[in-house]
Amino acid sequence: MTVPRDQLMEKIVALCKRRGFVYPSSEIYGGLAAFYDYGPYGTTLRRTIRNLWWRSMVELRDDVVGLESSIIMNPQVWVASGHVGGFSDPLVQCLGECKERWRADQLADMHRCPKCGGPLSEPRQFNLMFKTYVGPVEDSAAVAYLRPETAQGMFVDFKNIVNSVRVRVPFGIAQQGRSFRNEITVQNFIFRVRELEQMEMEFFVRPGTDDEWHAYWVKERLRWFAEVLGVDASHLRARPHDKDELSHYSKATSDLEYDFPFGWGEVEGVANRTDFDLRAHQEHSHEDLTYLDPETNERYLPYVIEPALGVERTMIVLLLEAYDEEDVRGETRVVLRFHRNVAPVQAAVMPLSKKQELIAPAREVLGLLKPLYRTEYDQTGGNIGRRYRRQDEIGTPFCITVDFDTLNDRAVTIRERDSMEQERVPIAGLVERLRERFA
Ligand code: GAP
């Protein structure tokens, strides 16, 4: 059953709340716009996304190392990077009834409020960085910022890393962590949030090889979405920025865009940042940030290719890819057809009833699967069909049911999410059979 595109986001938002993926933050106090909490399945999904990214970008490579830099850094970092001067959006305010604020560059008509039709103020630049104070005195000397991107950590620690671990250009530094942006307009659920989780990698290369590396990373990142997360390749495209769209630091950027119900939108940016950042930090800090090539004895500031994405947009992509409804014997079955790599629960183990004699074999089966898969144990009893439907809604590929026959034949039933087909398997062969089915 094809779900109409204009209803998809609404259905996903409802499912995320109902099944413990995403809640509005501090909801009992009325929430806070564009801040969210992630429930048990949302938390697992986010961790899984992060782990799969880290595995591909760091662990399976020998040319990328990791970093965790602090969220609050010396404010000079943001002066040098251009964020204090330039990380802003043009803001206009409705001077009519509703007093709503808008991003001027997103309005079709710059003179009329899209909500109430009232006149709009002249645009003024609004800096998106959140400010705070370090220490007990709230004066201008103590002002600091919550980082708006994780990337600057990699640039300011570049020298530390080159001097302390064995890395040679070309190499990358990867980081995952929270970033904060006081976005003016927020919409489309977690597509644009004010507290986000970024996954960024700065790949340092010899100037002159940057175009080649840029093309490499665009291709590699598209491969990751398709092969590792199971995203349909036809729903993704790489869109090179026009010259007038480029960020102040970029020579070339390709956005990896997804075909969202509200139109094509950026999920990841792959930018050629040139030596902009290292040069800026070298000038502001007066530290030599050049790299000495040990083979050629040449000294230079490396160029940087940066693939950067957010966990939240990746989550929406996975939910949109997975969401489906179908008619089963006159009832609507809602199912998340998550790829096996990303499903928050990969195997659910359930005794058919709460009767004591089924608990021991069910726990035995759980013990076999726990070290291998993300599992859930459901001992609630009750209608098995309804329990399967619950697992369908959170996207569990396999349910393993222990019933009264198990006590005699030492076998269990594997029920598959997409086909709903069931297969009887001896407990002794269960791990092997699941391994085949997950392959
Ligand atoms: N260091 C480069 C950088 O931060 P960006 O295009 O501003 O570039 C990179 O952000 C990625 O971070 C985006 O592609 C998007 O996935 C995510 N992102 C940025 N702002 C976001 C927001 N307000 N809400 C959710 N995700 C956001």
Structure description:
The protein is an alpha+beta fold. Helix content is 31%, strand content 28%. It has a seven-stranded mixed sheet. Strand 12 (252-260) and strand 13 form a beta hairpin. Helix 2 (40-59) crosses helix 9 (311-322). The two termini are 27 Å apart. The structure holds glycyl-adenosine-5'-phosphate. Residues 149, 151, 181, 183, 192-193, 196, 198, 200, 266-269, 306, 308-310, 312-313 line the site of glycyl-adenosine-5'-phosphate (GAP).
Question: What's this model, at a glance?
Answer:
31% of the residues lie in helices and 28% in strands. The protein is α+β, with helices and mostly antiparallel strands. It starts with a helix and ends with a helix.
List descriptors.
alpha+beta; about 450 residues; binds glycyl-adenosine-5'-phosphate; seven-stranded mixed beta sheet; globular; five-stranded mixed beta sheet; 23 strands
Major sheet: 7 strands, mixed
What distance lies between the first and last C-alpha atoms, to the nearest angstrom?
27 Å
Mean pLDDT: 96
Extract low-pLDDT stretches: none
* Sheet with most strands: strand arrangement: 3-9-10-16-13-12-11
Number-wise, the strands total 23
Q: Roughly how much helix do the residues carry, as a percent range?
A: 25-40%
Shape: globular
Strand residue content? 25-35%
Bound molecules: glycyl-adenosine-5'-phosphate
Query: Over the alpha carbons, how many angstroms does the gyration radius reach?
Result: 25 Å
